[in-house]
Amino acid sequence: MTDSTAPDPADTRAAAQDTALAIAANPPRRALGLHRELTKVWANDRGWWGQVTAVNHTTLGLRFMGTALVFFLIGGVLSMLIRAQLATHDGAFLDTELYNQIFTMHGSIMMFLFAIPMLEGLAIYLLPKLLGTRDMAFPRLTALGYWCYLFGGLIMLTALLFGVAPRDGWFMYTPLSSAAHSPGINADVWLLGVTFVEISALAAATEITVTILRQRAPGMKLTEMPLFAWYILGTSVMMLVGFPPLILASVLLEVERAFDWPFFDVARGGDPLLWQHLFWLFGHPEVYIIFLPAAGVLSTLIPVLCRTQILGYGAIVASILALVFLSFGLWVHHMFTVGIPHMALAFFSAASLAVAVPTVVQVFAWIGTMWQGRPELKLPMYYILGFFLTFVMGGLTGVMLAVVPFNWQAHDTAFVTAHLHYVLIGGFVFPMLAAAAWWMPQITGRERVRGLGEAAFWVILIGFHGTFFIMHLTGLLGMPRRIDVYTENPEWVWLNLTSSIFGFVMTIGFGLFVLDMALQAFLGQRVRRDPWRAPTLDWAMPLPAPAYTFASIPAPRHLGLDARAALLPLARGEGLLPGAPRGRREFLVTSLAGARPDHVAILPGNTALPLALSATIGGFVLLMLAGLYPLTLLPLLGVAVLVWVWGRGMVRPVADAPIAVAPGWDLPEQGLRRRTLGWSGSVCLLVANGTLFASLVFGVGFLAVVAPGWPGPEAQAGRAALPGVLLAALMPALGALAVRRAEAAQRQGRDGWRATRLATGLGVLVNALALGALAWLAAGHMDDPTGHARDALRGVLAGYVALHVVIAAGLAGFALDQFRRGEITPRHAGVLPTWRLWQDYAAVTAPIAAVLAAGMGMGG
Amino acid sequence: MLSLAGPGIWAAGFTLVYALHGTGCARGWPEAAAMGPVTLHAAALWAGWLVTLATGALLLRLLPAVGAGAGLRRDLPRAGAWIGLGATLFTLLPVAVASSC
Amino acid sequence: MPAAGVKRFAARATGALTLPPVLAGCDAPLSTLAPAGPVAREIAWLWWAMLGGAAVLTLLVLVLLAMAFGPPRKVAARRWTHGLGLGLSLPVLAVTLAAGLWVGERILPRDDGALEIEVHAVQWSWAFTAPGPDGPVTTRDRLILPAGAPVDLIITSGDVIHSFWVPKLGGKMDAIPGRANRLRLQADAPGTLAGQCAEFCGLGHAVMRFEVEVVDPADWENALRAAADDGDAADD
Predict the structure, then answer these.
(1) In this structure, which of A582, A624, A821, B70 has its CB flanked by the most CB atoms within 10 Å?
(2) How high is the ipTM of this complex?
């Protein structure tokens, strides 16, 4: 194990031996020759077109982070406008409408266009380097995520420039954000723009999870991998589970705004509190999604800067586990004042307090690590100390806010504003600044200019605390959030003026930081390799990092070495799978826990397909914004076609010959394995999808039990609809039988060929039948969905099932096409395992949806 | 995988008790006496809490029999089980002390 | 009773702490730190106690950090992760939870026939309807309360979500369409207090204020009658 954040190198080496992963070294070759061979295969295309078609994780990780930095600066400018407005009590600077747009955009940009993409970028940039692989699992998905993020962000920014930006606060509480109270496209910009950006979050979460679980260098066991990977694994799993509730909420609210289906309208059986539940079910885990990667940076940097090992590796992993779960049990603490019974508040109060425990464990593990070693006061350490000071205070005010009665007073005041900035700037921005100081030499290959970074640190630190410390008091003196004037409260003037002045100081500090980065990139001296004397693999490469990352994949014996000792053998091809002799992008896929080599994956090369797909989705978003709903079918059709093309891009020519990755180690290509990376990716997407469905089930239950106005008016569509419901509910299960039959026959080879095709054709047919049944229901056998929330929810459930039978039918059709092309053989299952996953999912959710839809009318 | 069991039990129990509480409040269980002074609502909540605790404790007892391996592979499921049990005890404690609706 | 003693002490400490000039603003009209009723007083007490605890803990972490700078030391991992990590946090959090629940239970509304006043929020004003001697009296942006008696406010909304908040009397409660939320408050003595909307509710959010006029219980009915005669009352 290469990592100071791992338990103990002696242990690890012993463990590596007892798994019998003794892989012999490949003969050394000239490093320069390997470099040329690999660069030809892995490098981006030339020129600006090369930037369009790039799928490489280093390029895209940096681009994610660079774009996020730009959005951070834009968000920062907006915050300066807010502070300028609040500097005096009559705020003659902005009018209220514009002010509302600005604070809404400040929050939305910082959350969705800065923090999340920044951590995604860091993970995408770093993970392959840290885990000893060559790229992320799904490079085209990385690119798709980037374009979706960029286009979504640009839509929101454009709206701001034209004065039609969202203005209902970054948590968009309905009914303020409903069509009645927020006419115009402002709210739609938020709902559609943010959902567009969230595609990139789900894409990143999927590939991060798969990369960590299945691409670690051989011998890097799950229980011994660098702590950063544990943190990012926790983050990505939380993203898979945390984002779907928000996506569902956004879709429901957009459907309510666009088509008048009442999910949140009390007059027709909806409930505005459903929005709050779904929003915070995402919103609170979001805070930990942001904090975990930052903590991962700290766990990586602190031991190296103290020249020691991390203290309590196991305790930290357990803390991450606890945080991942507990953070989903505290969303209601944002809703303490909505009139929920005291016992329910108390559950969430207790959970909000309990979540502090794992955080405290980590903080003390870090301080203990510093005691154990000799801390060196280099620039990243400045920011780490800034983190401790700021985050500890933010955590403690968080504990205060978890206490129900105090929350009743402090909620929605400047106290909360102060708290959240302590947590997010302390817990995310400071560690990210430390990370920037740490990895900039790797990104630029240059050293920084002395002194400027330290100056930036002090200005940021003083500016930050000067702005936000007294804001706690401002809040306790009664100043609510989101007001633009306070003519009747002269006592808040000096507090706000102080905050504003220091706010500008902080801005100057960030300006210095950006200047420092620019100087380093353009004027810095060439840096020597491994400048921090780090033990992690990310430094075991030339600087700046090459496109292919590793000339050969690290073998178990390289994992016990320091970065500089592993560097040369890897560059000379002594590890596994050296070079690119077949002229394709290849890396190793390993087993989930023990990281034993399993097969060789072949990646697609540079392509503009991700751009085309995200532009098509962007077209859908713009047509929705323009209110041209019938026209949106066009881009949806385009999406279906492009997804098909995308899938074709994952198919490799049938090849049976094994690949020698090291002397005596032959591995099959991905086509011979049923559980490919693509299959794992589908599992991740289905986990997210399942959470979305669970959120929908929660929504149905919540409205049926809690909302006023239930049961609704007598339903018109009664038993007459039953045949359609039954057909739609049960056909997917028949599809599940068909896919099993197809798989069994496929394994029998030639004899079973006819049966395989027949079963696959049947798969297409039953899914199409289910879709037909749903269309029949929609065409007159359902109540008008605009009448009552019950009927609107039935419509959504039908739509959900329809989407999934379409996907299942598409996969079955894809399999038929693969038979035609001879890509499915007794040894090559092709798309069959993936079809089976989605078909099973549809088979399970369709009957549940049917039961819910039927049961909603009866309860209450 | 086994390490997820402990926190998973907490998550299930927490959801169950919260759902029981919400449903009970909405449907007026506090007024429905189940046995003597104990309302149906209180009984359901206590049952939910105790069942979750018992499941967590059972997991902790069974783990040594199931979990093999050494180092973190053995310790993480144990830590997970303790996290689940501790979280259940702490976060559902209000069942015993807070007013229900 | 020790708890009461602690509270008296905390109240006195509160008073003492509000005196220094830098905190002169504490006595401001919307200050949570200058309570004018038992609910706000309980919460202020909780705040000062938590502030003290937080200050001690921050100091502890900073001292431990400062001590880390120096030669390497032999340290026991479990002492940090389990001893400090769990051993320190769990008791502190348990005490915090207990204090929070205790205060929370004490300030909840209960069925004791307290006076009920309806609060109806719309963009961007407040209507208060009290059961006057000659039928209900509705006042706009002006709440008239009797001193020294618990009052339950039944809070509703006519359009979007608002939040009713009189910081000197106690915590806030949201006004949500389709729901009637109950908030119990009690004012100590006659005087004029200020209230405001605390949940962002659109263009007029910042100016959605109201006045709370606390009168001697004996004068309360007269005050309502006067308000009705003034034409101050809403016409519904």
Answers:
(1) A624
(2) 0.93
